[in-house]
Amino acid sequence: MNDVIQLTAAELAARLTAGEVSSAEATQAHLDRIAAVDGTLNAFLATDAEISLAAARDIDARRASGESLGELAGVPLAIKDVLVTTDMPATSGSKILEGYRSPFDATAVARARAAGLIPIGKTNMDEFAMGSSTENSAYGPTLNPWKLDRVPGGSGGGSAVAVSAFEAPLALGSDTGGSIRQPAALTGTVGMKPTYGGVSRYGAIALASSLDQIGPCARTVLDTALLHDAISGHDRHDSTSLDFAWPSMAAAARSGADPATLAGLRVGVVKQLMIDGVQSGVQARFEQALDLLTAQGAEIVEIDAPHFEYAVAAYYLILPAEASSNLAKYDSVRFGLRVTPQGGATVEGVMSETRAAGFGAEVKRRIILGTYALSAGYYDAYYGSAQQVRTLIQRDFAAAFDQVDVIASPTAPTTAWALGAHSGDPMRDYLNDATTIPANLAGIPGISLPIGTASEDGLPVGLQLMAPAFEDARLYRAGSAIEQLIADRDDAPFWTQAPELDAAFLATAQTGKATN
Length: 516
Known about the structure:
- With 516 residues, the protein is α/β, with parallel strands linked by helices.
- 39% of the residues lie in helices and 11% in strands.
- α7 packs antiparallel against α8 and α8 packs parallel to α16.
- The two termini are 29 Å apart.
């Protein structure tokens, strides 16, 4: 494996600044890695080496001329295919948008480019971000690099795998109910859902507008914070964007690098998040992490949040309802796929045939559920009631944060499950998001970081931390300290323990990269 791709983003940025490696060399190394392993992993849906290398050479020229550049200038970046880009397709993992190219960049992408980051490809995802395994992509599943017969989580499995498998040091994702944090947990990476409105959603293909949030993922807390700084801030194009003076997330991560900073931290454990069915190895690692925190002087406080048990039910009414509305635009008339039925074509017939052919089973399931929940006579009973539960969950969080600084839980109740294991039983996927969904309903920030592997299967386990709205920096500070505790315990940073994807290992894959 090329040494360059094993560097963290912060380490690579330092070498770029020092002139020890060029952005073109770093970009080519990651493109070579993609060529070597992605035929099996299927983390990327699109790459364009010519465009990426041209952008890298431009950064090299600007640096050579003495121009002052951002800290991450020249570092490669993977982009979840939910974000539109001008130079690569944006499909949101769906056949209905196959080949679609946007006339503008999403704000998060535009800001990443302005910071000098080099986009190297669009990553695979569950169709329209509907799923918890990246098996619902119209372009085939993504495989978990820790064990190739396992899912990487979802919906952002492609971004998490790109980072975990050293195909990219940084990636952008979206999180509607855990789609950054849950795949981070299953692939041994770090994923952050910012405060709702902290990162612009402009140019993100919408699933559920009141829940969606764009965020960063990487192999370390500091790298994640650096990318967060690059993409955050107010955006006039997004009516939900917060006009707030955000502190530096990277500075917070660096200030928390000493575990001694955990002394006095009040850590809440919500008993309703310790759900039935938590895998024994996940539970053991979570308890070990709490013990490490206690040893550093943190205080563990049990929290009662009685309405959290209704979070999954409320979420799976709110999300489908908003998705039903957002996906109505895919009507075959304005853009995207068009299927013309035989024997005459009315607008209704073309629309029906197009949506039947273009949407997958999970998308259809949620559109039907959402349309029903919004229909006359049922709106108040379903969607309206779900919004009332959402308010109660927000109040539970407010009461909890009167007692504690952060809330901790397992990010996911299990490690990565086998491909196809949840086939035909979508409820198993839905319940896997039970610990991550509350943060989206409340609009608060949440981060997942790896805390070890489960004893029974050797697969990564994630710890989730949540903080009040606007306190994203608090999570980076605490997360950085916990990350160092785990590294001290294991005598190595967790990300260095990822398996080497050599040819023999890749040959064990049960399924290869699907063709369009």
